[in-house]
Amino acid sequence: MINQTSLQDSSLQDSMDGDEKETDLEPEDELPKDQQQTDTYYSLYRRHRSLQLGDEGDAGHRRNGPSDTFPKETVSQEDFSLFLLASNLSVVAEPELRAFVAKRLSKGAFLGGMGTIAAVDLSIAEQPVACYYCLLQQNQSPGPESDKLESKPLVTDYVLCFLGSTEKSLELFRIELDKYAQGLQLYLDAEVGAVELHIQPYLSSWYDDSVLYIQRVVQLFQDRLPILLRAALSHTPVEVKGTDNKIKQDVDRFLSAASLPGLIQEDSLASLCKVMTDEQQKVIVIDCSESTPAFQNAVSNKFCEDWIPSFLNGLESGNPFLIRQILENFKLKAIQDMNSLKRYIRHAEMNNYALFKCFVFLKNCGNGDVLLHNVKVEHVEMPEAQNVVKVLEEFMYEEGVITPTN
Length: 406
What we know:
- This protein is of the alpha+beta class.
- The chain has helices at about 5-15, 25-30, 55-65, 95-105, 165-170, 175-185, 185-190, 195-205, 205-210, 215-220, 225-235, 245-260, 265-280, 300-305, 310-315, 320-350, 350-365, 370-380, 385-400, and strands at about 40-50, 85, 115-120, 130-140, 155-165, 240, 285, 295.
């Protein structure tokens, strides 16, 4: 099932639910090559506030799990006072950002469990800068012991802001930014003094870890990138060895970004994992101990290979946002092909000519091995469709498009 915390994935789901959409897959039209990112900023604020009458139940709900929205509350102006914990903004720009955040807080414009991206005017740039802001950790604690009976519970909120590039560009990395923001929780739970020791280094690395990873992966693998792309589409496990954790994390982030959680529904995904286990699918092992990564059990296909020129052109531009847009276009095309195959299979249940069209499509799309394997799992409880898939498998084996080990 598509992750509901991602607006990107929501757009992918729209494509899946409907018929194939006409899409311009030229990434240069989406993000100009000269749109480079150089300056990035961060700010972390803490806010203490007292719960108002009737808010206790809501606060308890938020502690037990994220709500869909951070509710608008009737509080005094001082309850929106933000205490700066860490920032690399100038002394002029930081108060401007603080005023922006306070205004958003007063309007309840925060989503529980995920960040929001908006454009904000700051003195650091002539044009509005994209700001990712997220509400973190709401701890409730009683007031002073002497006033225990009369005092209201105290809630500590943290507001995290990442700034850089444009609103449209930063939106491409919303999922990564949400995960990175949640990773800050460990340091917020630590003892006092963690700001200088842990929090500031963590915050200063947000752009390198959440955005630039995609550029590093394409640079490292280049023409071997199709192996990773196919692994992501087919849910094939990948193991990286012979290197530090940074490269392993980069590969994991790339596989996550390239995968299509909505291509197979959640219940079918469990079935797919079982099928993969039963088929003893081999793990792709990548040895990065040398300058050129070495692969074991590597599998690619024409569909993924055809996208390599676009990725390499994006790499040459030095623009990670362009590379990410290319990846989104790659995923969208895979979804369109999956939609087409499902439509052909529905028709093929009653029409032999449609069955032939299914075969021709799978043979020519370059991604037939992955699509057929995924649709086989999705239709496991539909006898008529299952029969169509079985016939298609036999045709594909005979033509050498796929092998029994796929």
